[in-house]
Design a protein that fits this description.
This protein has 16 helices and 16 strands. With about 400 residues, the protein is an alpha/beta fold. The protein folds into two domains: about 240 residues, Rossmann fold, CATH 3.40.50; about 110 residues, CBS-domain (Roll). The chain starts with 16 loop residues before the first strand and ends in a 24-residue tail after the last helix.
Length: about 400
């Protein structure tokens, strides 16, 4: 088969991936690592591959960029058969991220990020601009980190640099193999949040291997659940998998807290915020107190000139204060529109009034939410998920006739 080169990736572009009856059988093994896998990953989706160790997740990932060749079947990237593409050219058009970033220890951060642009013949000025742009994108100050070496970085910082390097040539597809598995839980959560933000802004097609089902729920547009022997058991949205697991294996893999996991699916923006009495530091506490009492509320918020929360005060505190605070309180129960309802419920439960302050995308106070509102939103979402069609083939879209294996996006 003659080899061709991939077209240059387009800025902010993405490409769909189709796996058709893909099998991988390693020499000397009794069973396939991946068995007759058919699935379609829509352009711009983040698809999570989950399952027990040895179920073929990483093998599937590596077959997409031809680090491993399939025994049989076809893989299409953007409509092109990957076997018809020069392997080196293929990989330059696909970002790849592994645990701890997989950085070259003898290269600086800037040089690590510049590896693929250098291979593509970019000049130094263009490469330098791209390095700085990507460091800012992953929340690392270019002046501070550009010339550091990997050993001088924390695990979370190394992982951010790994993501930046994978994005350097603006590839349409990003493959991620347990990228956050080697960092502590707090750093992992921050990296997950940054991944959500990056995906929302860039809309790359992302295939992400993880052992953590909670991570899959939080990040994935769709989840592919694999069983041992490389069998795809269920491929669906997180909501549908939680509401209608395909079989006992998926049910056991989800765990006994499927109801609580529903909290990770909905976002704060899905909850209608309740009104809150507000005032500015320039006002007197008595004025704010009077408005709170007139509204029948036990708490009131102080906001700055841009409407961002400064403090959250009870009527008892307002009665005692000589003036309203100017400096933001460090422990405000704040949630933003993209936070999950699990995050919101956590903030609600640890706050004294049992409320969380909701801000908009610019950080301006939008209202408050409480536990009943949060749980009501989760319950309202469940019928839609439960009304799906359990028992479909793993790659079969909702509404497709029985026996169909075409995987459409929900």
């Amino acid at each position: 088969m003659s080899e061709t080169t991939l077209p240059a990736p387009q800025p902010a572009g993405s490409a769909g991936i189709v796996l058709q009856d893909v099998t991988k059988r390693f020499p000397g093994q009794d069973r396939s690592a991946v068995n007759d896998l058919s699935m379609e990953i829509a352009a711009g989706d983040m698809v999570m591959l989950v399952g027990p160790s040895g179920c073929g997740k990483t093998t599937t990932l590596k077959m997409i960029n031809r680090l491993i060749e399939p025994t049989s079947g076809r893989i299409l990237l953007g409509g092109n058969d990957v076997e018809a593409v020069n392997a080196d050219e293929l990989r330059r058009g696909i970002g790849y991220v592994i645990q701890a970033g997989g950085l070259f220890p003898h290269l600086t951060v800037a040089a690590n990020i510049a590896v693929v642009p250098s291979m593509l013949g970019w000049d130094k000025a263009r490469t330098g601009r791209r390095v700085d742009e990507l460091l800012e994108l992953v929340s690392l100050d270019p002046e501070q980190y550009r010339d550091r070496y990997p050993k001088e970085l924390s695990g979370g910082q190394q992982q951010r640099v790994g993501v930046a390097r994978a994005l350097a040539a603006d590839p349409p597809v990003l493959l991620m193999d347990e990228p956050f598995g080697a960092v502590d839980p707090i750093t992992r959560e921050r990296l997950q949040d940054e991944m959500l933000s990056l995906h929302a802004n860039l809309r790359k097609t992302i295939v992400f291997v993880t052992h953590d089902f909670d991570e899959a729920i939080k990040l994935g547009d769709k989840i592919a659940v694999f069983a041992e022997g490389g069998h795809l058991v269920q491929y669906d949205s997180p909501a549908q998998i939680l509401a209608a697991p395909a079989n006992d294996f998926v049910r056991q893999f989800i765990g006994s807290d499927a109801g609580l996991k529903q909290l990770g699916l909905a976002r704060v923006r899905d909850v209608p915020a309740l009104p809150v009495v507000t005032g500015t530091p320039q006002e007197g506490p008595r004025e704010l107190l009077a408005r709170a009492l007139a509204a029948g509320q036990d708490y009131a918020a102080v906001v700055d000139g841009d409407g961002r929360p400064v403090s959250w005060l009870s009527v008892a505190e307002l009665e005692q204060l000589p003036s309203l605070p100017v400096q933001p309180a460090p422990d405000l129960p704040l949630v933003g529109p993209d936070d999950s309802l699990a995050d919101a419920l956590d903030a609600i439960l640890v706050s004294v009034p049992g409320l969380a302050l909701v801000t908009d995308a610019q950080g301006r106070l939008d209202g408050v939410i409480d536990a009943p509102l949060t749980l009501q939103t989760v319950r309202a979402r469940r019928p839609a998920a439960a009304a799906g069609e359990p028992g479909r083939s793993p790659g079969q879209p909702p509404g497709a006739p029985a026996g169909s294996t075409e995987a459409g996006r929900q």
